[in-house]
Amino acid sequence: MSQTTAHAPASSNTLRLWLSTAVVALLIIGTGMFQSWNLALVIVNMGLISAIMALGVNLQWGFAGLFNVGIMGFVALGGLATVLVSMPPVEEAWQVAGIQLISGLLMGVATIVVAIVAAQKIAKARTRNITVVAILVVGFVLYRALFDPAVGKIEAINPAQFGNIGGLNLPIILAWPVGGLFAAAAAWVIGKTALGLRSDYLAIATLGISEIIIAMLKNEDWLARGVKNVIGLPRPVAYEVDLQRDPGFAETAANLGIDVTTASTLYVKFSYAFLFTIVLVILLVLAQLALKSPWGRMMRAIRDNEVAAEAMGKNVTARHLQIFVLGSAICGIAGAMMTTLDGQLTPGSYQPLRFTFLIWVMVIVGGSGNNYGAVIGGFLIWFLWVQVEPLGNWLMQLITSGMEDGALKSHLLGSAAHMRLFTMGLVLLLVLRFSPRGLVPEN
Amino acid sequence: MDFLNAIVALANFVIIPATVYGSQLALGALGVTLIYGILRFSNFAHGDTMAFGTMVTILITWWFQSMGINFGILPTALLALPFGIAITSLFLLGTDRVVYKFYREKKSEPVIFVIVSLGVMFMMNGIVRFIIGTGDQRFADGERFIISTREFKAMTGLQEGLAIRFTQGITVVTAIIVVAALFYFLNRTRTGKSMRAFSDNEDLALLSGINPERVVMVTWIIVAGLATIAGVLYGLDKTFKPFTYFQLLLPIFASAIVGGLGNPLGAIAGGFVIAFSEVSVTYAFKKVLGYLLPESLEPDSLVQLLSTDYKFAVSFVILIIVLLVKPTGLFKGKSV
């Protein structure tokens, strides 16, 4: 390819990138001016988190063509990390049943490890199968015998307030990398089993693991209180109340001509936005460096022609596992950030349509294979997701305004909220059909 | 006597529910496996297709009920079923024409089809929630029990009761009829044979003059039928709730893969393997063991391997084991 033709699409991409960035910026500024700056900042903060999730998924899909439908699970693991890192430990729980709990968990892990080793070491098929099953059965019984009573004791401790083991009482920012590690570990297990088989298998395996992770979060009360939720997670930024009490802050707010309550909420949201932007920029720079490195070229070579890449001596499955773990880790980091922003872990609120499929819409719309595209897609789709609902309500009110009051009218008005699923599906299909390379295509 | 009681308890709480659930899963998995065999992609919209078909059937059932039409001791929904299937078929054919056909002609990669089916899933989900809402809907009417616990106890004099609900009986009978008809169609009729030929080797089928668009059309109609029937039976047996149907996707896919994707016989076997494992792993065996073991050995705990909240984990674990040990499934499916 000559220099000029190679240059042309890149520059048109740059143009598209600037244009779509401008559109997103306008949309957010518009929200600030016509609705409220508070809402605009709320959208920006979740937009930053969505952009990070989309970046992670783009790594898997855009670089390697891996189809992960378990994003929700990795995001939720990040949320779990915030609780386990930042909450104060429940001392009583550790005194009553700490050793028992840990030995139970170790027993479980040991059983699996021994079973795997046995499966690999014993050559004769029949002996192997019998041994592995025997190890698993005995291990499971021992595990339950140690684990169940410990859980019972822990969950009995003041269940209205605790009933869990608490956390490590460390700064909550530390939970972000830890969330990434949790997600990476889960991704490694899934990748190890399902990669190297047909592409749909990974999809189904990830779908399964995410449902199981959510079920675990909902039911293992000893871990993070299950559906009783953990509220009041510590914050990495200031509290509004403290700011309002601070005379210096009040004075600055008065000088800027904003009343102190509004100023404090805006300040807190700005602080979050600042932290999130740092993380996004770091990850984006790393992803860009990776994309341009020999490693990134190899990944795209594998994506575009697995057979040829394998013939060149590339270990396709191992590289896939690598990038799958990395991408999932980024989702885990984003998940921990989101729970930090919410200030609470509510396992009941994880919905696959919101946390898995919406991220997919972001990646596809933004432009798969382009990191900037994924970030723009994250912002844009999140903006739509937030704004389509009031828009849908308004539209439905317009449609039903001519109708007389009755069951149909109230049903239509009540169901308007569901239109956003429909709209997101429509956006996905339209982009795939008419602009499959997305807003900002791959260079 | 104790032994009989144990068997009855086992039948009541494990064997009958698992058979019923297995029939529902098998019908669902047959739909997934047919799409995989003919159109060559994993259809993520299948759960929501079931929800759509069931929703249409429920609406027609309500309409029938409001006009005073009923089916005697059987649920009215069975009368509404053919109409539900017809509308779902039209809907799926429309989706195929508007959405999938474009990618088929372009010969897109399977994973693109999967993503497209995600988009379709989103839209169907939106439509279903928009029309019928997100709540639980019960639409079973007619007689409730073929045999109730009290009747059974009076009849046999056993301590344990056995109840068979009408919906359970209907599920199994319908499933048998549908599967028999499907296999007759696939193995004996010309269209069915051309479908199998197309699934085995597309190029060869095209060479021998099989019209691919016709095969695809027939497939969608059959899938609409299977999905609607599976959905309605599940809804009659339990309740209809859109989100539950989305969640059924996992056990259904697990059934299809365990049996071997693309293999109809495998889908049925897979459905029962998943259903029986799910029910028996989450059942508390205390009662059964209590009858069987001498008093000194009777268990104190529930003897439940996993709590019912983790039933998805069961299909998942079986899926993983099959992927590790035999990726082509129990019956040789098409898989790499």
Automatic annotation (TrEMBL), chain B:
User: Where is this chain's protein located in or outside the cell?
Assistant: Cell membrane
What is the source species? Halocynthiibacter halioticoli
Give the membrane topology: Multi-pass membrane protein
Q: Which family does it belong to?
A: Belongs to the binding-protein-dependent transport system permease family. LivHM subfamily.
Alphabetized, the UniProt keywords read: Amino-acid transport, Cell inner membrane, Cell membrane, Membrane, Transmembrane, Transmembrane helix, Transport
- Please report the name of this protein according to its UniProt entry: Branched-chain amino acid ABC transporter permease
Q: Where are the transmembrane segments?
A: 6-39, 51-73, 79-99, 111-132, 162-186, 215-236, 305-325
Q: Which InterPro entries does the entry link to?
A: ABC_transp_permease, BCAA_transport_permease
Listed GO cellular component terms? plasma membrane
PANTHER family with a match to the protein in the record: BRANCHED-CHAIN AMINO ACID TRANSPORT SYSTEM PERMEASE PROTEIN LIVH, HIGH-AFFINITY BRANCHED-CHAIN AMINO ACID TRANSPORT SYSTEM PERMEASE PROTEIN LIVH
Could you say which residues form the signal peptide? none
What molecular functions are annotated in GO for this chain?
Answer: L-isoleucine transmembrane transporter activity; L-leucine transmembrane transporter activity; L-phenylalanine transmembrane transporter activity; L-valine transmembrane transporter activity
